[in-house]
Amino acid sequence: MPAKKAAAKVSTRKAPSPPAPSISAPIVVDAGDWTKDRAPLGSHVSVAGGSWESAARAREISATGSQIFTKQANRWLERDIDDVESTRYRTAMTETQVRWTCAHDSYLINLASPDDALRARSTESFRAELRRCHALGLDALVSHPGNFMDDRVSGIARNAEAITEALEAEPGPTRLLMELTAGQGTVLGSTFEEMADLLSRIPAPLRARVGVCLDTAHVWAAGYDLVSDFDGVFARYADVLGFASLGCLHLNDSKAKLGSHLDRHELIAEGTIGGEVFRRIMTHEALATVPKILETPKGDTPAETDGRMLRLLRGYAAG
Hints:
Blueprint: E1 41-44, H1 53-60, E2 65-68, H2 83-93, E3 100-104, H3 116-136, E4 140-143, H4 152-169, E5 175-179, H5 192-200, H6 204-207, E6 210-215, H7 216-222, H8 230-240, E7 246-251, E8 253-254, E9 265-266, H9 275-283, E10 292-294, H10 302-318
Parallel strand pairs: 1-2, 1-10, 2-3, 3-4, 4-5, 5-6, 6-7, 7-10
Antiparallel strand pairs: 8-9
Helix pairs in contact: 3-4, 4-5, 9-10
């Protein structure tokens, strides 16, 4: 009997980002009319080749907003941004239509950890994230609340203490936006009330530097029914957190079911949330001036995919 052939090994590594186009290259991606954006609208873009290369990638999709990583998100290794890089990034961004920028912090950071060593390491990494954002002149830093691991109330207290320590140590213009989560496992911040509790623990003199990022895929997975109770969900947000706290929307459809607590992003109008919710977001008066950033799958052609998503959203806004 012939021996069985070994199964082919399937690579799970993320494909490398395509090289950035020239900042002066003609824009060939039809992402819709950026001049009609009532609020900054864009996508998370790669910094492969240098932070300044994100400018060309944002320009390529006619973005008016952008999000980046300022370091490798899955490594503890930190880095500083010197004056040369800062100037190069800021200069490159002047060649784009982007008028609002943010970074997402490292996925390794857990400011709520009961482990003293991990929390200390996380706080140092979080401070470094803030320093890089200040150096680049970014408008916001998006951060997930941590995992409490032991006791929820204690985890919220530890998270607030670490945020306070970092903000006091790293003054600067970048606003911290705490992102609502899907609520899987021991993660904090999956309800409006819990997020409000966390923010209320930040000392009043620092609170103006802190706000909220609402991710549509996360709140859907957390149990907020955007499809059947869109007005109710945002009325509840207004009552508990207030629209003044809302600094950014992450626009993502979802592969997961309502209330599943699974964080699984999908292309707009191709998931369990559906296109009508995003049409309402793009035309909702209270959300009109809130920056909106895509974190949808990019596939093998990031610019074409992001451009298609932005064109769809701009079409929704146009009615």
